[in-house]
Amino acid sequence: MYPKQISIYEVGPRDGLQNEAQLGLEAKVQLINGLSACGLKRIEAGSFVSPKWVPQMADSTAVLQQIERQQNVTYSALTPNLSGFEQAIAAHVNEVAVFTAASESFCQRNINCSIAESLRRFDTIFVAAKAANIKVRAYVSCVLGCPYEGAINIEQVAAVSQALIDMGAYQVSLGDTIGVGTPQNARQMLDAVSQRIAPQQLALHFHDTYGQALANILACLDSGISTIDSAVAGLGGCPYARGASGNLATEDLLYMLHGLGIETGVDLQQLANVGHKICQQLGKRSSSKVSQALMN
Ligand code: HMG
Ligand code: MG
């Protein structure tokens, strides 16, 4: 049975913009304000990573300072280490997200350390977050394939996910970083992870590189999952995963979920307008089919 409601975790301002041409501060702030006005309740607003690694996110403190905060919206940011966590707290995020991978090679290229070392770094974040009463979300990348290693063992995905939950993550987001999954293996991977972790503590984070993200979500939708990550206009990708094009577009996800009678609390037409504007500012066409149809 499909769920009655799905919580959308909007990653456009982070995952989206980290892989696009640099955008001005004001445009980022307007984007986030526009997203919250559409009814999105969880927005990843920035990333406290090295500005040498990802210059697009260097102004995350200013972004978080300048947005108009809505009471019932959770604004989060990526934090790879304690330094990132401290910056995020100083910028008054509501929660943070740590990120590692099921692939050693990807972990090295993305955060310059092994999976085991990434977990040790996160340990310090979990301790500090508990003291500050801040929730921690966690990402596992390459759950359906790695740009450097190819196929990934789903038991490794399950083991890394479990380690993160055991450390205190309230949710693990399963990232198909390069969008190579197809419905059957996406579901098999989710079922393997669900053997160890309740589906309510999992989220799906599928990139749409091969146009499979929506089909993969549908294949996983009756599993008890309640959170799906997506990006307005299908923006983005990971700069350390060559060929990783955009995330699943939030507009396309909403259209499918609403068509299935699943509530999201998000206004699709309003979101399409926000997506249209950001694409104009970036000088690109929206990769959301639904947006292309609605804004025609
Ligand atoms: P490193 O070079 O090993 O770190 O990078 P280090 O501790 O040796 O420090 C090197 C320099 O970085 C120093 O500066 C530090 O101060 C600075 P310097 O002395 O050279 O001037 N530094 C920092 N600056 C700002 N904020 C920080 C910070 N930490 C160190 N938090 C590090 C290690 C993790 C920092 C680096 O590898 C990094 O920033 N990586 C980020 C890569 C990234 O952001 N990737 C994209 C996000 S992940 C993703 O998109 C996947 C996801 O969407 C899920 C999916 O799709 O699968 C989440
Ligand atoms: Mg991603």
From TrEMBL:
Its EC number is 4.1.3.4. GO terms for biological process: ketone body biosynthetic process; L-leucine catabolic process. The keyword Metal-binding applies. It comes from Shewanella mangrovi. The keyword RNA-binding does not apply. This is hydroxymethylglutaryl-CoA lyase. Keywords: Lyase, Metal-binding. InterPro entries: Aldolase_TIM, HMGL, PYR_CT. Transmembrane segments: none annotated. Signal peptide: none annotated. It is an enzyme of class 4 (lyase). GO terms for molecular function: hydroxymethylglutaryl-CoA lyase activity; metal ion binding. Residues 6-272 form the Pyruvate carboxyltransferase domain. Pathway: Metabolic intermediate metabolism; (S)-3-hydroxy-3-methylglutaryl-CoA degradation; acetoacetate from (S)-3-hydroxy-3-methylglutaryl-CoA: step 1/1. Coiled coil: none annotated. Belongs to the HMG-CoA lyase family. PANTHER family: HYDROXYMETHYLGLUTARYL-COA LYASE (PTHR42738). It comes from the Bacteria.
